[in-house]
Amino acid sequence: AHVASKRVPMLASPTRVFAPGAFAVRDPDGRLVVFGLPDPSLPPAVAQAGNPAAALPGRLQHVVVASRALAPMLRFYEDDLGFVVSDYVVDAAAGGERTVGFFRSSPEHHSFAVFRCPETRPDHQAFETTCWNDIRDWADHMATLNIKLWWGPGRHGPGNNLFFMVHDPQGYLVE
């Protein structure tokens, strides 16, 4: 209702992983953003001989993008979509100009972030586990696939979460 009241063009969801009622919008960078609840009729992932990672916890927690059009992106996510601002990072030397926006759509610190960059591109997606041992298990799983950790393990300042990051096959970061 909020998005419709802002007259943001709402599009059909392009995926069937969401239950009926899901919708999509395009942000100022042209990115397709899809909102919906999981389709309960889909079977849960189960561990199989060829997919041992299916038994490891890892729900999508947040997405971060880079944008050349930071101000319109901040306005869109805050005003048009109604995300709540968790934090802005500002450049004090530039008179307090915003360089990063952290937004939430749940009680967590952020579910989306955007930062100023000379190019518009994805930055990373983060998946949440239940505890430090899960992070160890995921890191061990990455090692069995010969995927090197790019950063971490460690603890982030914003959000205070434990993490490690790897590059996916297309070169994007996964946390």
Give the tags:
alpha+beta, 3 helices, about 180 residues, globular, three-stranded antiparallel sheet, eight-stranded mixed sheet
Structural features, described:
This protein has 175 residues and is α+β, with helices and mostly antiparallel strands. It is built from 3 helices and 11 strands. The strands form 2 sheets. It has an 8-stranded mixed β-sheet with strand order 5-6-7-4-8-11-10-9, covered by helices on one side. The longest helix is centred in the last third of the chain and has 13 residues, at 132-144. The protein is globular. It starts with a helix and ends with a strand.
Gist of the model:
The chain has 175 residues and is an alpha+beta fold. It has three helices and eleven strands. The strands form two sheets. The chain has an eight-stranded mixed β-sheet, covered by helices on one side. The chain has a three-stranded antiparallel β-sheet with strand order 1-2-3, with no helix packed on it.
What is the helix fraction of residues, given as a range? 10-25%
Approximately what portion of the residues adopt beta-strand conformation? 25-35%
What is the distance, rounded to the nearest whole angstrom, between the alpha carbons of the first and last residues? 32 Å
Q: Could you give a short account of the major beta sheet? A: 8 strands, mixed
Tally of helical segments = 3
The overall pLDDT average reads: 90
N-to-C SSE series?
Answer: HEEEEHEEEEHEEE
Q: For the largest sheet, list the strands in their spatial order.
A: 5-6-7-4-8-11-10-9
Radius of gyration: 18 Å
Structural class: alpha+beta
Overall geometric form: globular
Name the poorly predicted regions.
Answer: none
**DSSP E strands, number:** 11
